[in-house]
Task: structure prediction
Amino acid sequence: MSNCGKIHYYVEGKCEKVFLDEFKSGPGAYFKPGRVDVFNFVNKEIPSQRLIALGANTTLVLVYDVDVENSETLDFNIQKLKKAKFKKIIHIQSIRNFEDEIVRSTNITNINKVFNTQSVDEFKSFFVKHKDIKSKLLTFNLDLSLFWSVSNTNEPFAKYSKQKDLLFIRKK
Amino acid sequence: MVILRIKLNNILAFKNFEVNFGYSRKLNKSLIEGEYLKTVPSFRYKKLIVLIGSNASGKTSLIKALWRTTLFLNNKDESKLDDILDANNKDDSQIELDFANEFEDKATLFRTKIRITYDRQTNARTVGMAMYSKKLSNGDSYENCIEELDAQKYDYMDWKETLKDFPTNFGWNVVLPSTEKYFDHVTISDTNNEKETKDYYNILNNVMKTLDPSIIEVSKSLDSKDAIAVKFKNREPILIQTGHLISGIPFLSSGTKYGIQISNILYAIKNHQNGLYLVDEQFSYVTSDIEVAILTTMTSLLGSEEQLFFTTHNSNILDLRFPFHSFYFMKKTMIDGEALITISCASDLENRNNVSPKNMFDNDAFAAAPDVDKIYSLGDKENE
Result:
């Protein structure tokens, strides 16, 4: 990793945090390292106390799902981030959500097959508690190059979707 | 005595915890000199281990485990293990320690295994122990000895039997925040010669004057035994006396109260009194620049067969030009209601000259950052 300033991820839920923490550190890390906080930019206004702690040289990476209709809160938050002047704002959109990204980048066809669960909520609960999620996903032939690799073409979130953002978080 | 590896299970909060302090690759550009045994230069070990981690990540516990285990070995006293065993948990516990010792120009590598078991009916404790030692010779390294250590058959006996002929020629010096009751202990006495006394007061003066520029002199008290007089500009002098709690002394700032303890350990390292130095968070009240100056000085004073373990919350330490392998990151995670302490060394992840460990730490490349969400959420709108 070169000295490229600070990266701060804001992810939508605990599953994304567990996933990123697992694949951004350790030998063979795939994503660029950065602090990871859970905060859903799509449905909650970002409070100032969270932004004050971040330096101006920070690149913010917002990770969120696009399975909702409304982008008003996100639009508001983006304006607030722009006023606070960060180095860069990167958008990573899960298409359409985290579970779909898992399915796309592994050989499973249904998310509940990962832990033999009955519901998505149950899957999420198992996912965040798992002791070695990296090994578990690799048993399903996880291909990280497919994860967060698709550009979104559907509004209202397509306006924030850029192919170069998807490449930014990958370690060179 | 130098520690090469420790493995802990069911000791304090450690479960299946293991960490290695050897290093195999010779570093030509390291600014830490002599990171090898004097008698066997091929046998490399890390002279400085900086433990960084969030609160309650196991730093102090690791220092305690090292301290109490070496204390047990040296004093041959089972009760020294009491502090690191959970009185309410009667599951078996294990400690495994690889260490090297130089004595009369001969170096020996030891692997010791300690097993603590409990009788299910009576709760009576049994400490079993097995040990293997190997005389080191030119060309040996820790890495090429591991196979031999692993291949041995370790038969557990009563610890007294195992330690019967074990040489106790090593020492250590430990400073923990919990030892504040010793902060007033001046380690120089009338039995020290003039040179030692002068050297001690020179260190004490330099440290205390740095911590508080209004101090003009620190000297031996002429009126009281085991006491020092601290003279200030425009203020009455104060007396710090062994046995009289320093916390009760007005005028001394929180950081200055650590001055005597810091001086004691600097003096010990400078005079090669101990070998193993365990310094746990003595700098919480001390400015980062002063902490940096003291740590780099301590490191430069370390001799052969000496090792410094140093815990800190100060990430500026990561900007110092120590080798990557000196930096260790500790983390505690909760998995299914159970705490799991893990440790990783910076050199396991990165070892390039153009990469800054500080930058990596700031970006949580070692996955050791605390989860601060619960704090931030207190200020979120729905909580107002």
In short: Residues 15 and 52 of chain B are 19 Å apart (CA to CA). The first strand of chain B starts at residue 2 and ends at 9. Chain B touches chain A through 24 residues (CB under 8 Å).
